[in-house]
UniProtKB/TrEMBL annotation:
Keywords: Lyase, Metal-binding, Zinc. Belongs to the Gfa family. The keyword Magnesium does not apply. This is Related to DUF636 domain protein. It comes from Phialocephala subalpina. PANTHER family: DUF636 DOMAIN PROTEIN (AFU_ORTHOLOGUE AFUA_2G12650) (PTHR33337:SF31), GFA DOMAIN-CONTAINING PROTEIN (PTHR33337).
Amino acid sequence: MTTTVTATCACRSFTYKVDFPNTSLPFDRALCLCNSCRRISGSCGISYIAIPPDQTIDPAKFNLTAYKSSEVCTRYFCSICGAHTFAYINRSPGDHPSVAIATGIWDKTEGIIKWNGCKWVEDTLDGGLSVWFNDIVDADGTKRPLKRWMLQDRGKTEEFVPENSYRVLEKKRASDKLKAQCHCGGVKFYITRPNEASKKVQSPFPDLSHPFHSVSSANPENETWFLRDNDTKYMAGTCTCTSCRQSLGFEIQTWAFVPKCNIFKEDGSPLDFDLGTLKSYPSSEGVTREFCGKCGATVFWHCGFRPELIDVSVGLLDPEEGARVEGWLEWWTDRCSFEEMAVSRSLVTSLEDGLKKWGKARQGV
């Protein structure tokens, strides 16, 4: 007996069915938070799962771009929408490579993936997303704690993160520029602190704070909801909508909401999306996403109804600031945007619960 999973990117140019033997289920999986995975994706935590060795994927049958991210790993992403789709992993010369599919484009994961925590937490400096994943309730109702590994989650390098470490990194750097770039360096830019121009930007409220399925997003008073901490930081949040998930390739997209007037190219010129290896994908009417055409990193999201406010992938921001970049960002903790669209329900419920607890703890509630 087998369980069939269908993996599909946002533009539908990549669709592939995998048959997993039921005897192999569920797969233990930890989100990888390493610097490379964050900058290759734009997200703050990703995962792949190997398909059975008797199945394979021929990249030539799809419109894909290959990117060799290390000596042992070549990743493939959709050349049209930018979604990471699968990776070839060859750990020993001469061996047949294993093929692992990005889990965010699956049509189902409950009962198939057993999420067990986060790995490579050491790279984050501040714990990254791992501080929001405390426990999880599986599809059968079993509640269990989630783990945090310094590096790998198995083998000789397995080492757990000491309790209550990597919680906060309030590092204020002398520079008022926050550098950002994708893994290959084809897209580089920087962000400046909020200023008077930032306060003039207008935008409706986001689903993050005003769920579109239940309340209006209208912002008649033109509140600058994206400016936080006395207008010194930007709001950041998590999203699990279908479009983000299938354009990214992974379960959780992390966005920072930054006025366009505060984003500059590496040479100091204003952002105009004619930027290095940047490619555009119109994901829906009036909405455009940008990704690196060389390494596949998701970079920006912007739209016609708030053209002066840009969503920036947090995973691209300077890793020396910590993965949560709290010297520049204030995270929204009441909700994960479009959580009702999530496929990995148990994972996203764990994320939302952890965000709320973390937010209350930070406020001293």
